[in-house]
Design goal:
The complex is a heterodimer of chains A (about 625) and B (about 725).
Chain A (H helix, E strand, L loop, with lengths): L1 E3 L12 E5 L7 E6 L6 E6 L2 E7 L1 H4 L9 H11 L8 E4 L3 H11 L7 H11 L4 H9 L4 E4 L2 H10 L6 E7 L6 E9 L2 E9 L4 H11 L8 H7 L8 H5 L2 E3 L5 E3 L15 H7 L12 H28 L4 E5 L6 H10 L4 E4 L8 H14 L19 H10 L5 E2 L4 H13 L4 E4 L13 E5 L6 H10 L8 E5 L18 E4 L15 E7 L5 H14 L3 E6 L11 H10 L4 E4 L2 E4 L6 H4 L24
Parallel strand pairs in A: 3-6, 6-7, 8-13, 13-14, 16-22, 18-20
Antiparallel strand pairs in A: 1-2, 3-4, 4-5, 8-9, 9-10, 11-12, 15-23, 16-17, 17-21, 18-21, 19-20, 22-23
Chain B lengths: L8 H11 L4 H10 L37 E2 L2 E6 L2 E6 L15 E2 L6 E7 L1 H4 L9 H13 L4 E5 L9 H8 L6 E5 L13 H14 L1 H29 L4 E5 L21 H17 L3 H15 L4 H13 L3 H14 L14 H13 L3 E4 H8 L18 H20 L17 H16 L5 H14 L3 H13 L9 H9 L2 H10 L6 H13 L5 H12 L6 E2 L3 H4 L5 H8 L12 E3 L3 E8 L5 E8 L7 E8 L2 E9 L3 E7 L7 E8 L7 H13 L11 E9 L16 H4 L2
Parallel strand pairs in B: 5-6, 5-7, 7-8, 8-9
Antiparallel strand pairs in B: 1-2, 2-3, 3-4, 10-18, 11-18, 12-17, 13-16, 13-18, 14-15, 14-17
Helix pairs in contact in B: 4-14, 5-7, 6-7, 6-24, 7-12, 8-9, 8-10, 9-10, 10-11, 15-16, 15-19, 16-20, 17-18, 17-20, 17-21
The chains are: A alpha/beta (about 625), B alpha+beta (about 725).
The structure holds fe (ii) ion.
Chain lengths: ~625, ~725
Amino acid sequence: MINHDASNGNGNYRPTATLSRRAKKGQLNVIGISAGYHDSACTLLQDGVLVAAAQEERFSRVKNDKSLPVKAFLYCLQEGGITIADVDCVGYYEDPYLKLGRQVWMGFMPNLPPTRRDAILDRLSRPQPPQMIMDIMGYQGRLEVFDHHLSHAASSYYFSGFDEAAILTVDGVGDWATTTYGFGKGPDIQRFEQVDFPDSLGFFYSAITGYLGFEVNEGEYKVMGLAPYGEPEYADQIRKLVDVMSEGQYRLNMKYFGFLTEDRMYTQELIDLLGQPPREPESELNQFHMDVAKSAQVVLEEILLEKTQYLHSKYPSDNLCMAGGVALNVVANGRCLREGPFKQLFVQPAAGDAGGAVGAAALAHVRVTGEPPAVKRLEHVYFGPTNSVSDAYRFLKVSSAKFEDFRGKEDELINFTVDRLIDGKVVGWSQGRMEFGPRALGGRSILADPRRPEMRDRINALVKMREAFRPFAPAVLESAFQDHFALNHTSPFMLETCDVISEIDLPAITHIDGSARIQTVNGNANPRFAKLLEEFYRRTGCPILLNTSFNMRGEPIVCTPVDAVRCFNRSQIDLLVIEDFVLERSGIPAFWESLGHFARGAPTDAQRVVEHSVYTML
Amino acid sequence: MQRPPESLKSFADRIARAAASDEADLLVRMLRMAGLTGDFKGHGIAHFGADDRPTTVFASEPGVTPKQSRVIGIWERREENGTASFVRRIDMMETWHFWANVGRIEAKGSKLRVLFIGESVARGYLYDPSFTPAIALQMMLEKQYGKDQVEVIDLARTNLGYEIRELSLAALQLEPDIVVFFAGNNWEKKTSLPTFNDVARLEDAIAKEGMAGVKRVFDEYIERTGRTIVKEVLSEYQAGGIPIVWIIPEFNLAEWREPFTSAPYLPENGNREWIAAMKEARKALSDGDRVRAEQFGTRIVELDQGICAAGYYILAECRRLANDVDAQRTYLELARDAQSWDNSIMYIPKNYTIAQEVLREELPRYGAQVIDLPVLFKQYLNGEIPGNRLFLDYCHMTTEGIQIAMGYAASCVTRALKGVEQPWHTFVSDDVAPSPEIEAEASFLAAIHNAHRYQSYDMVHHFCSRAVKNSPHIADLMLYFIDLQAINKAPLRMSEAELEIFRLGSPLVHRYLFPNNDKRLDKVLLTAVANALEEAGIAARERLERRYREEHSTRNTETDMLHPYYYLSAGQPHEYEGLTWPLARVDYDPRYYRAYWPDSKFVFVGEAGLPVTFSLTCRLPKYSMDESNISVDCNGQPQGDLTLTKAWSSWDITVPGDVIRDGVNEIEIHWPIPQFRTAEALDEVITKLCQMKYPEYYPIYGEVHIFTASSVAHAAESPPELFEVAVSQAVA
Ligand SMILES: [Fe+2]
């Protein structure tokens, strides 16, 4: 510590300033980063404990923002109480040069359009992410780079609570691999086989997604949601798209896939094969579309089931860990678990590339220490910024909106909210820390009474503006879920589908095939959300609420109280609960609308925005 | 073949590994830029020829020669009963406010048709739509021609640049009897991404002339582009037999000051001397030693070869003190023109001398009448340098300025069409003016506009006072503005204060204030607002102090001094712009604070007697020493030294309460002055241009990642009650 004595000019000494080097917090601070493709994210592992994880889109407000997660990085530092000087290692989630090799190989395709070839040259001439982490973020310490699918594998295995497990990762593509087979044992992860680009189950499913008029790399879950309405009428045709081969291998029949050369996932041959033109986005969905969706889903499930059996044959364990974008297909996962050889399944809730940041951080931790990170099974995903009650209060107080203050009156707040839910109101619910990953799990959620048949259409009209065919998901009290859902284990991350067996009619959350994608809620992970469910249960006999993410269509999930109020204003949600404060629609001044066209939106920076007509593999 | 051969995968990996080696990415980039990798277009690095005009504003129909365009700005041709009118396009509603608020331009009828084309100065920025130059011209001409005998078609557009070509050529379809242009402020350096030719030209210029070469290249671009466009437009109008009037704009030379930057990399360690000379010159001026200041000012300009404004401002001030108005004016013009090359700070529209000269040379060749405002304003002001009397900011004019310019325009129109000589002032009358309420609002908007562009307290205060004097209704609005800015907890649109301003203000306020304002601590502006109100007998200072204390005191909250909200009040525009990525900058830029001057200032709101603890994470930059001390001052009092290296380090600094004062406090870091590696740094400029990174022409003295201020740990008593008084109750 340096004490600096200074006189005030009269020779009298005044109290002195103290200047001291700040003590580092945490023995080992490891940052994980994923960026450059879809949903960039940053995470902090402090002495092996996951303390912060968030996607950049939540801060930048650009949906699926793929730029370097500069804001999420600052958030992670703040949450960990550290500065950039305290970061011991950064783990980056993929090897840019492996990825570049794959991109160069694509350039060897004959008759490649000049724009494609040019884009590859552009890639070769750009600074790569590790350099950008130094230039843009100013980081200058140890940096470790990991293979894309290794990051996926790590994001699942190290957070599974298993001390050994088989590991299956499946996505569109990262570097070369699109599917990997391996296992984890203690601190080590091994891979024994992989399928390489362009053969990809992710692209197979995305091609159907594009054909069905949904956004590629985004709308895949809609295909999964559409499938139960259809029959697998086209399964035979769709099986022609993938040659399933021995061991872990399969091969795409490239005459049906356009992504190597075109700005479209599929070719005219696929259209000929299925016999109908592709669906125009936003147009009517008919039985044909549903049948195609069902057929694709069935084919995906068949292949995944076969490949999990293969994985088990090579590594016979009770435990399976999954990650990668395809692992978000919960229907397929459920079938693999039910019909396959594994007894327990753990799927990383942020199974997509955002989760790669968590995996890269864990891998960096292992590389530095030789030990696995200190995690038991992941219990929650509340790793984002928290709402500060006092900041929320100060914001609302000086805003021109009216609100009610329930500070110190949690029971009243719960009662009030339950009253409104029972009245059929749609409630925006922003509490505590924001979730990491694609699902809102009671931190930044929209809630409603699942018993009301009109709720599905109503929420779609109010805020989601989405296809009405998909039901919403239920959040259910952990203590009561087995009375209502045919599932023998908890599902804290909304990653399981199961049959609805409730005596209560639950039209808003029950799929056409009688299934639901459930989240089980307990008081440890989210006490206030559990209280709300308990009170709703006590009053109605129904321990279930409809739960969907708190965002407008095309926007990221809300993060701050200001985001929540902004979304509340722009949607037609009835009620907004932020921590201890409640806003009703009537309390929003008309003025907010009147100057709407002056409101500056999120930046539309081409570098950030993700393309949705084709996987931009570049 | 449906997929590339598997056998090529290893080779592809080999190429990728080669790309990972040092500078391989740069090699590929340069080969592409040079066009050596085959036929290539798009992605921003197109190969332009000499007339590489940028077009950003949609002024005519793309892909069609402008004269055939169905589109004139936001209006589109519509044929009805054999006549063609131009109707405003709904799909361009987002940009309507850049143009005159006119739904339809009818087909030419019997009225005398005067076409009026120009930039924001011609729009009447800050008065429009309540009062505009076109309205003034219309009123003046009606006196001459009678009501309903004349129509001024207002095609002025805010931010119109070189697109004036397309707009003017498309507008020929409106069959004007005469055209009045009022343009020349937006002819600036090229802002699109650099082409191969640009980079090659810059590299050559830097090698031969250093940074002066950079300015020459950009000035030549302005000159060449402006001249090409003027020639083409004028020849088309001349060929159409349409008489031409062109108003050459003038600039607020007396009061406007370009935001301060230090010198870019200078040869032979000139930067060290430049900094010392600047500090000496400033000190000499504050000591009243004009002669000494002038010596240093002269040396500054020698060192930087005239490519920085700061030295010229020193010299202009010295000449002012010597009552040498002509030399003062010359230096102010040189200061205005000096940083035409610089994209590190916000671009301010201005009439560069080179643009004026192009107009003075070309206009007579096409028989155009020239209204040379620099000359005419000088006459009008009896040789004085034009300032806030005629200008609201840098180039936009006050009512008086508009009256003079339009008086001359009316006189020229009358001369051309009637052959009648009638002096300009005969067209000017009191009714050709906005109401006092509008004048007050425009003045207040000007105060905000100037403050948010780093202008002095005096200039900002001038417009605040002018507002209050014009109309008392502005006072309440100004009080709510204090709340709007000082209370940062709610975004603009959601805040109670903005709702009140919405209720009180005219459409003028709605138009300019709401879309353009950002929340800021606004130390200069809010102090000027409070003082102007107090001077008019309206209590405001206490309100401002209370708001600052309640909302921002370190007692209650940790202040992020790098947040633009605070940082914008630190008086360091160059660093601010570096921190917030103006449009010209691209995605590969550092996202942390870099000091462009050896002293970095930061502000926070404190309370006298209450100690403050600062948390600072910083390092020395790439081209600095490996290790050196920095010193820290708070409110001008030294607080101690820290030893830094080029690696980040984090520090806690606690400053005792007796150093802290109520209200806005300053903490300052003094960085070491390094050896300047100019050749290396300028070489990197070229590399960065090739990589489409921001070219860093300026030395960096220090880097800061985090700097916060908090007294929470020191606040002995419990924090005061949270701010409970609703804004609407606060105005007595
Ligand atoms: Fe992936």
